[in-house]
Every structure is written in structure tokens, then in C-alpha cells.
Amino acid sequence: MPHSLVEPAGSRLIASLTTNPTHQEWLEQALQLALHNRQQGGRPFAALLVRDNQLVTSAVNGMHQDGDPTRHAELEALRQASQVGPLAGAIVYASGHPCPMCLSALVMNGIAAVYYAFDNEDAAPFGFDSTAAYQKLGLPLAPPPLPLIKLPSPLAAAELYGAPDHA
């Protein structure tokens, strides 16, 4: 069953993809969306939800729009894609490692795997890691609840996240 692309305001693909994109190409699209979102005043996060190597939806972190702390890119992608069809078996490509809230939603909806560019260690100098939340909740990531696969990023963390947080 083909899925249509769902694109709400604030999330768009920067460049068209090849016929059969690789995991790396999908991830690079997510990174471009995240970078664009940061350049537009948002947080530097984006996610693509892909099924059968076809884009179902793309989303960016929308917390800055209305102050809703649940408007993480992965949750926005899940919300949008659920309007199109079942989510089980889909793959998510995210600019960063999912936080506990997003990871729980991904697991609960049967997402097959998450490919991401930056982990908590990469994001920590910029104030964007979720290590403390994982620790407070007592959620170990070993073994991961679904495949969490870090791929190389063509961007440095500072290019995406901005200046390090020196608080």
C-alpha cells in the first residue's frame, strides 16, 4: 500500500532523494531539515519516517511554536504518519538519539529501527543530551529496546547545534 507524503508547515524536504535512498541518504535529509529548523529559530532536531524505502512523513521539533514540550521531531513524525496508516515496521531517521519520551513512543508503535547522527555525548556540550532523563527514569540503553544505529554525519555537531553551552 503506497503512502502519501504528509508535510505540515515547518517541515519540508530540502532536496529530492534518489530512487532507492540508502540509510545514510535518509539520515542526511533529516540533518538538513534539522539544520533548516535551527536556522529558522527552532531547535536543531528533525525526523523522517520511512516505510518500504518511501518517505511517509518528515517533521521538525516544534517546541518553539507553542511551548509544547512534547513537540519533539520523532513524536511529530509519529503523529503525522499515524494519519496515513500503521506505523509498525517503519524506520525513523533522526538527527539525534531519541530521548526517553520519543524512544518509548517509537517502541510502543512498533518502529523497526532508528538511525541517528548525534548521540547524547555529542549533544552534551550544547545542552541537548537526554542522559540525565534516562538515568532518572532508570532506563538502561543496553540492550536497546529496538535497533538504535548511529551513522556518520557530514556535519559537525557544532554546525547543527550551534555554540557550545558553557553554563
TrEMBL record:
<feature type="domain" description="CMP/dCMP-type deaminase">
    <location>
        <begin position="21"/>
        <end position="141"/>
    </location>
</feature>
<keyword id="KW-0479">Metal-binding</keyword>
<dbReference type="GO" id="GO:0006152">
    <property type="term" value="P:purine nucleoside catabolic process"/>
</dbReference>
<dbReference type="InterPro" id="IPR016193">
    <property type="entry name" value="Cytidine_deaminase-like"/>
</dbReference>
<dbReference type="GO" id="GO:0047974">
    <property type="term" value="F:guanosine deaminase activity"/>
</dbReference>
<dbReference type="GO" id="GO:0008270">
    <property type="term" value="F:zinc ion binding"/>
</dbReference>
<dbReference type="InterPro" id="IPR002125">
    <property type="entry name" value="CMP_dCMP_dom"/>
</dbReference>
<dbReference type="Pfam" id="PF00383">
    <property type="entry name" value="dCMP_cyt_deam_1"/>
</dbReference>
<protein>
    <recommendedName>
        <fullName>CMP/dCMP-type deaminase domain-containing protein</fullName>
    </recommendedName>
</protein>
<dbReference type="InterPro" id="IPR016192">
    <property type="entry name" value="APOBEC/CMP_deaminase_Zn-bd"/>
</dbReference>
<keyword id="KW-0862">Zinc</keyword>
